[in-house]
Amino acid sequence: MRSLFANLVLATVMILAAPVVAPAMAAEPLVDVEWAKANIDKPGVVFLDVRSGGGVSKEVYQAAHMPGAIFTDYAKDGWRAKINGVDGMLPPPDKVAKLIGSLGIGNDTHVILVPLGRAALDMGAATRIYWTFKVMGHDNVSILDGGYQAWTKDIDPKTGKPVNPLSSGGVELPPTTFVAHFRKDMVVDRNDVKKAMEAGVTLIDNRPNDFYLGLTMSPAAKRAGTIPGAKNLQESWLTKNNGGSFRSKAQLASLYKQAGVPVEGEQIAFCNTGHWASLGWFVSSEILGNKNVKMYDGSMAEWSQDPALPMEQKFKLD
Q1: Total domains present in the chain
Q2: CA–CA separation, 112 vs 31, rounded Å?
């Protein structure tokens, strides 16, 4: 019969010898073309073509796309919905989960979002869907920095065609079950924003400056102007030359400083309908690492509907 000491020694050896299981890690928020080339045929990795956010139709996708990439229509497939009279809102979690599963994406899938990559505006389709995946509890999601434009940028001088491979025809994966783990804390409504405004929380208006000043008004909004006290950090500043590649972390930190926007602490990003603001949220949260930033899904489309909520119009024309 072993002594107590011998048993303790044996237990210690078994613990030390046991394999260490690493915890699941979130994917890198941005991947580049070289990463894509190395992983495009890797099992468990799905490239989701969201060029529709830049006006690309399914027919154009079928003519040429990254090998293995599946298509989704940003505007029509159900990524956003009209709720309480407000367009572009996050649909109920069960409907989003059904959409994701119908694309063949499961909880173990690493999703790579491929926007057009022509401008910050179409990159917003990727950041909005990225935010949606995060809200659904799916951290294994990334964006191809530079998008499809980066993939097709290098041209073979002999053939005049892109060096990186392209495929034609459609790609569809077998539907699967995606289970949502809804992160309610990531979603704020007008009451949350009102409380934040009154408490002096940093509010970031990611719309172009003319919207912020009240000179231009979105058709989705009922009143011109911004939320009182908000700072303006327009979405087109966040990518290089308003293109499809994000600025470096150092450049973004400098940009935030010059715009008077802190890179840490509680913040809420907004725009007109939660598209431009998703770019601001992505930069603040995923590139600069401020996990205390949230995105106001309803944005000015919801806020401006309520006449009891204050608006600040900095420029007024008679």
Answers
A1: 2
A2: 8
